Amino acid sequence: MGNSPRPTVLPSMAALQLLCFFIFSLVPDFAGAITRQYTFNITHKNFTRLCHTRSLVTVNGKFPGPRLVAREGDQVLVKVVNHVAENITIHWHGVRQLTSGWADGPAYVTQCPIQTGQAYTYNFTITGQRGTLLWHAHISWLRSSLYGPIIILPKLNESYPFKKPYKEIPVLFGEWFNVDPEAVIAQALQTGAGPNVSDAYTINGLPGPLYNCSAKDTYKLKVKPGKTYLLRLINAALNDELFFSIANHTLTVVEADAVYVKPFEADTLLISPGQTTNVLLKTKPHLPNATFYMFAGPYFSGVGTFDNSTTAGVLVYKHPSSNNHLKKLPTLKPTLPPFNATGFVANFTKKFRSLANAKFPANVPQTVDRKFFFTVGLGTNPCPKNTTCQGPSNNTKFAASVNNVSFVLPSVALLQSYFFGQSNGVFTSDFPQNPTTPFNYTGTPPNNTMVSNGTKAVVLTFNTSVELVMQGTSILGAESHPLHLHGFNFFVVGQGFGNYDPNKDPSNFNLVDPMERNTAGVPAGGWIAIRFLADNPGVWFMHCHLDVHTSWGLRMAWVVLDGPQPNQKIPPPPSDLPKC
């Protein structure tokens, strides 16, 4: 009886239709998800700006680098081939890298660098993200010329939560140095002094007419009247937060760090290095009798020198008749805030709110498993014996730290050493949860500004909900620090000036629709509170995105342990992972 054949049951028409409907209802998730392959050849190429010609390290000979375009859900393979003498890694800034930490890119954190003549294929899938991000080198200061946009389109048949723009235009802010930035940071680290600043800011690689010898190197954004343009703004500058404004035009902010926001209008924006902002530019209904400057200039809250200059592009309305018409038009200028407008910055950042609707929820952790309090700021290291240093005080070197630990990059990659259980002698897991020596963080700084040096990480079990308060200090000057967390987005639930008060401040936290980002500024002389869910196993770098502070040690790492399910574990490394 047990082996008797089962009767064949032919499905009814209704059942077949139901089955077809079920199958097709699954299709949209995979519809259009494809594998996109790119080759990034790292080569030297000469570029001239400000009448100075320099050999830049580039991707495919382009500066800025090429666009990486994908749809949400796509797999991306980027083969990076190193044809230059410098060691190279590329970071896909803001891409979540769920269980693909081997593709994250920070040198000596998730990989050893790609050496001369070697290649490595970065392999990752874009999951649950759409919008603008950026890619850049993640070793030393090479990202000064190695950077480009990541444009993640919504899935096929999905639309923006705002009116479809007439055209989309990436606008990348950068910095130009007349000398090699690698020499600049090498010299600074040797002498202990602050590094020389850049010679110009750039818009899409061009400094613009306010600089010497640069009128011909001006970015022109040509528009038609009565249209809506989506500008994908990216700050790829090394060391400077930037204000941006277009004369006589108001911008509508619709997205930041590849997360949609409740739309709001602004005449002037602030964008920190590593941050992206998508804005809608509505052009005037009729041809205006003017062209319009677009300015980007620095926000600087610290002490010391900075590049206090302005890059300018031009917004030009296309005239149906001849070009001669343009010559006679006046060019109107916007007014940027003063360089130290910390109040403006605080008010501006508070305007960002997640959409927090059914389609784009804000999954803010409502309860917290682990709380951390990190101080972030500058400090000093002693000068090595028998040498002279030019740091902030007699024979010291500039340093920077998190909880007074100035992070020392290891000589092998953290992720590899962790994955193979060989972390002994590479890093320790005793990073302090709180400052070891509390002090009045934003008051008169302590006499002893020396930092400790080490390679320390925090270990989190999988799916831990984390609350982290980052407190700026006044040591060697209160300064804004744009902090970037790899491998995660986080929610900015609170911010304020002065010292964080754990008894009073949490009652004002926004747990409903806070901004979700990958890079957020710790205010000058203030604090920021963030929450995130540690749902991504791996070793994840967190650092200030002002490269001078990163070089000085304002960086640390989170180790997130594997979860129980197969898709919650780090896979073995790819066979072509570079060796140290």
From TrEMBL:
Metal-binding found in the keyword field: yes
Keywords per UniProt: Apoplast, Copper, Glycoprotein, Lignin degradation, Metal-binding, Oxidoreductase, Repeat, Secreted, Signal
Names of required cofactors: Cu cation
PROSITE patterns named in the record: MULTICOPPER_OXIDASE1, MULTICOPPER_OXIDASE2
Compartments where located: Secreted, Extracellular space, Apoplast
Single GO MF descriptor: copper ion binding
Protein name: Laccase
GO CC field: apoplast
Reaction catalyzed: 4 hydroquinone + O2 = 4 benzosemiquinone + 2 H2O
Role: Lignin degradation and detoxification of lignin-derived products.
Signal peptide: 1-33
Pfam families in alphabetical order: Cu-oxidase (PF00394), Cu-oxidase_2 (PF07731), Cu-oxidase_3 (PF07732)
EC number: 1.10.3.2
NCBIfam families listed in its UniProt record: laccase (TIGR03389)
Span of domain Plastocyanin-like: 42-155, 168-319, 431-562
